[in-house]
């Protein structure tokens, strides 16, 4: 392989740029039910599919990881939670919509956390426009795996339900 001069595009840097982001997902259980949220028809990636509340870390605004998951859950479903321990780590790739050349990707590294609700009256009134949610439901644990989940969440849901017994 030919050598690469400093500052020139080599075999790895010539590839599409990949930006790294961190996300957390909250598995909130109350009375044997798990809170799920449904993506709206306007969601650019998974319209109509279900997932759990959560989102990406705002590096400059979130004080710590507990603050981050609390903020995401509050914004998406209006609940106050007590963050619990992580139980699963995974990743996915998606197009980087901030890359004007349209070649970049975002690698999202995520953790799923068991969370205890402090409040249970879920509402979508606090969501940000880019959350793209149009519904939420407290689903019995034995039915949660039957919902049409976003693909990257399916193995996480299986792990959660296995541990829940």
TrEMBL record:
Gene3D superfamilies membership: Nucleoside Triphosphate Pyrophosphohydrolase (3.90.79.10)
Top-level taxon of the source organism: Bacteria
Native species: Actinomadura meridiana
Protein name (database record): Nudix hydrolase domain-containing protein
Nudix hydrolase domain segment(s): 17-162
InterPro entries (UniProt xref): NUDIX_hydrolase-like_dom_sf, NUDIX_hydrolase_dom
Pfam family, one: NUDIX
Keyword annotations from UniProtKB, A to Z: Hydrolase
PROSITE patterns in alphabetical order: NUDIX
Cofactor: Mg(2+)
């Amino acid at each position: 392989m030919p050598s690469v001069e400093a500052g020139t595009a080599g075999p790895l840097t010539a590839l599409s740029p990949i930006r790294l982001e961190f996300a957390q997902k909250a598995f909130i259980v109350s009375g044997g039910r798990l809170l799920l949220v449904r993506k709206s028809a306007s969601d650019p990636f998974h319209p109509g599919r279900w997932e759990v509340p959560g989102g990406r870390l705002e590096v400059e605004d979130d004080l710590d990881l507990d603050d981050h998951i609390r903020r995401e859950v509050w914004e998406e479903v209006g609940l106050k939670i007590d963050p619990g321990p992580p139980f699963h780590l995974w990743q996915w790739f998606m197009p980087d919509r901030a890359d004007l050349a349209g070649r970049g990707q975002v690698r999202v590294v995520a953790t799923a956390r068991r969370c205890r609700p402090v409040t249970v009256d879920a509402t979508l009134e606090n969501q940000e426009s880019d959350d793209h949610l149009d519904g939420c439901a407290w689903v019995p644990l034995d039915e949660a795996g039957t919902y049409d989940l976003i693909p990257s969440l399916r193995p996480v849901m299986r792990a959660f339900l296995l541990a829940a017994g």
